[in-house]
Design brief:
- The chain has 19 helices and 26 strands.
- By secondary structure, it is of the alpha/beta class.
- It has 3 domains: about 240 residues, Glutamine Phosphoribosylpyrophosphate, subunit 1, domain 1, CATH 3.60.20; about 180 residues, Rossmann fold (3-Layer(aba) Sandwich), CATH 3.40.50; about 140 residues, Glucose-6-phosphate isomerase like protein, domain 1 (Rossmann fold), CATH 3.40.50.10490.
- An 8-stranded antiparallel sheet has the order 3-2-4-1-10-9-11-14. A 6-stranded antiparallel sheet has the order 5-6-7-8-12-13. A 5-stranded parallel sheet has the order 18-17-19-20-21, with helices on both faces.
- Strand 12 and strand 13 form a beta hairpin.
- The longest helix has 20 residues.
- It binds fructose -6-phosphate.
- Fructose -6-phosphate (F6R) binds next to helix 9 and helix 17.
């Protein structure tokens, strides 16, 4: 994941930028760069590869400055080249960015028509041009910056230098985190507390939609509406450990909030955002006759969501099985089967054994794993990485959505390669995936309503989760999350199965959580909810505002963002995780290390 640092003070800025960038190396990157204001002019140094390559460039052409910004880039739009490395520059403006500017193509077209010339393939560069253009019309840099932010669609964290504005760095966050660090006569911006950790432990966490101006003497912070905002200064631990909870109470909460980034980085492994295409990988799906996914727990539910996509988009038969059953069942698999192990750790004993067995049968194998040096990564013929970063909370969250994101993207590739998806549809599906990080960030706004629901759930002894289509495995994942960390008994069902048994459980004490995106089966789910309400069962329907109200007393609604049905499992995963999290917090359980559970199950 990309890293950001900004320093404005009186001492040499560039060694500080490099020190910070080294601390951000753990996030993964393929190019790095810095920009500094030298004698009133902004100069950049950038390099493909590691920080040491950037240091070599700086050794040859040093930058002597007291203000600068730096970035480690993990390529999403455009290859990892020096030209695509941040900072990006246009006129008086130079900036670094994490996230995705979804409407960059439309903004770029507009700017090109006005005569702006672009030098990179990135989405970021449009922001620099847009701000430079606004600065030509509006004198106040903060006002100009706000007009630019108002035009951006997507998820971002930004740090900006402007020629002629000595000592000033502007910053903004939406979807990607950004912190302000407070020093003595020196101020900092960073993508996390770790970025500013070498210089200060005094941090203000910017909130969603905030923007900020820092200079040597302090920071002026504003909320999304432009009103001054007061974000408290907190003292963070001096530890330089690679993983810390930051502004969050638990790792699980932190990891839930990291999902706009982790999903974006995972998607960019499989999709070419610049050209709106699915990237062909090592495996040609046209030669695959069947997919057999094996996994455990949460990864198994991710696999089931993948199955809906592979079959629907690519017409590719796909089976998904719990690894502990698969490995002892003597399954009959045909030669053209691609066996896929899905796992966060890549070490789960049953999944690894199933993969090894499939390989021994002479099948093609792939491992979709988050730990890229794990046993499964080494065992499988093909490595399909997820880029969720280290997951510390025992209950899996960001690793799950990274698995789902990768499987959805691979299903689009499969559909293209098997001639089921034409170029126009490919463009539409890639665009839909492209919107997921922003919509995930927007989904966090459901937290207020979900806390209220969690208050009631914490008193329940049984909870039902319902969904249809890809929402069915997500309902099972929701039930698993709730069981794991709040110790409340929960089950996930296909909504249509209700009448075949589970409806007998319905009473006034048993809440039902319904995952109901506005898709082709919404009406059917809605009528199942009426059946529950008619029997006195409390129903919480998570659905977009635009979805009609099911007629039934006692159906509470929680509004989710509107989204393309392909990405609904990614978007609806957020309320499901938050609900489990808030319920567990309400109950006071050990959220990050629930009883009896281990992060990686390397025994049977
Ligand atoms: C649930 C959870 C577990 C794991 C399962 C597989 O929150 O974390 O169900 O998903 O133990 O682990 P991995 O993905 O490492 O194979």
């Amino acid at each position: 994941m990309c890293g950001i640092i900004g320093v404005t003070g009186t001492g040499p800025a560039v060694p500080r930028l490099i020190d910070s960038l080294k601390r951000l190396e753990y996030r993964g990157y393929d190019s790095a760069g810095v920009a500094a204001l030298v004698d009133g002019k902004i100069e950049r140094r950038r390099a493909k590869g590691k920080i040491r390559e950037l240091e070599a460039v700086l050794a040859a052409e040093p930058l002597d400055a007291t203000i600068g910004i730096g970035h480690t880039r993990w390529a999403t739009h455009g290859a990892p080249t020096t030209a695509n490395a941040h900072p990006h520059k246009a006129g008086r403006v130079t900036l670094v960015h994490n996230g995705i500017i979804e409407n960059f193509a439309e903004l770029k077209a507009e700017l090109v028509a006005e005569g702006h010339a672009f030098e990179s393939q990135t989405d970021t560069e449009v922001v620099a041009h847009l701000l430079d253009s606004q600065l030509g019309k509006i004198n106040d840099p903060l006002v100009a910056f706000k007009t630019v932010l108002d035009r951006l669609t997507g998820a971002y964290a930004l740090a900006v230098l402007i020629e002629g504005e000595d000592g000033l760095i502007l910053g903004a966050r939406r979807g990607s985190p950004l912190v302000v660090g407070w020093g003595e006569g020196e101020m900092y911006l960073g993508s996390d507390a770790l970025a500013v950790g070498p210089f200060t432990q005094k941090i203000s966490y910017l909130e969603e939609g905030d923007f900020v101006a820092i200079d040597r003497s302090g920071a002026r912070m504003f909320d999304a509406s432009g009103a001054p905002a007061d974000r408290p200064i907190v003292q963070v631990s001096a530890s330089s450990a690679l993983v810390e909870k930051g502004e969050h109470r638990h790792f699980m909460e932190k990891e839930i909030h990291e999902q706009p980034d982790s999903v974006q980085h995972t998607l960019s492994e499989y999709l070419d955002f610049v050209n709106g295409k699915a990237k062909p990988g090592e495996i040609d799906f046209a030669t695959v006759e069947r997919i057999q996914i094996v996994a455990c727990g949460t990864a198994f539910y991710a696999g089931q969501i993948g199955r809906y996509a592979f079959e629907r988009l690519a017409g590719l038969p796909c089976d998904v099985e719990i690894a502990s059953e698969f490995r002892y069942r003597h399954p009959a698999l045909t030669k053209g089967t691609l066996a896929v192990a899905v796992s966060q750790s890549g070490e789960t004993a049953d999944t690894l054994a199933s993969l090894t067995w499939c390989k021994a049968q002479g099948l093609k194998t792939a491992a979709l794993v988050n730990v890229h040096s794990s046993s499964m990564a080494r065992e499988a013929g093909t490595l399909w990485p997820t880029h969720a970063g280290p997951e510390i909370g025992v209950a899996s969250t960001k690793a799950f959505t990274a698995q789902v994101a990768a499987l959805l993207a691979l299903a689009v590739t499969a559909g293209v390669q098997r001639g089921r998806i034409d170029p126009a549809t490919e463009g539409e599906l890639v665009r839909a995936l492209f919107e997921a990080p922003r919509l995930i960030a927007e989904s966090m706004a459901m937290d207020g309503a979900l806390k209220e629901v969690a208050h009631d759930l914490s008193k329940a002894t049984d909870v039902l989760f319902l969904g249809r289509g890809a929402m069915f495995p997500l309902a099972m994942e929701g039930a698993l999350k709730l069981k794991e960390i709040s110790y409340i008994h929960a089950e996930g069902y296909a909504a249509g199965e209700l009448k075949h048994g589970p409806i007998a459980l319905i009473d006034e004490e048993t809440p039902t959580i319904a995952l109901a995106p506005l898709d082709d089966v919404f009406e059917k789910t809605a009528s199942n909810l009426q059946e529950i309400a008619a029997r006195g069962g409390p129903v919480i329907m998570i659905a977009p505002k635009t979805a009609p109200d099911p007629h039934g007393a006692g159906i509470r609604r929680v509004d989710a963002p509107d989204c393309h049905s392909l990405i609904a499992p990614l978007i609806y995963a957020i309320p499901v995780q938050l609900l489990a999290y808030y319920t567990a917090v309400q109950k006071g359980t050990d959220v990050d290390q629930p009883r009896n559970l281990a992060k990686s199950v390397t025994v049977e």
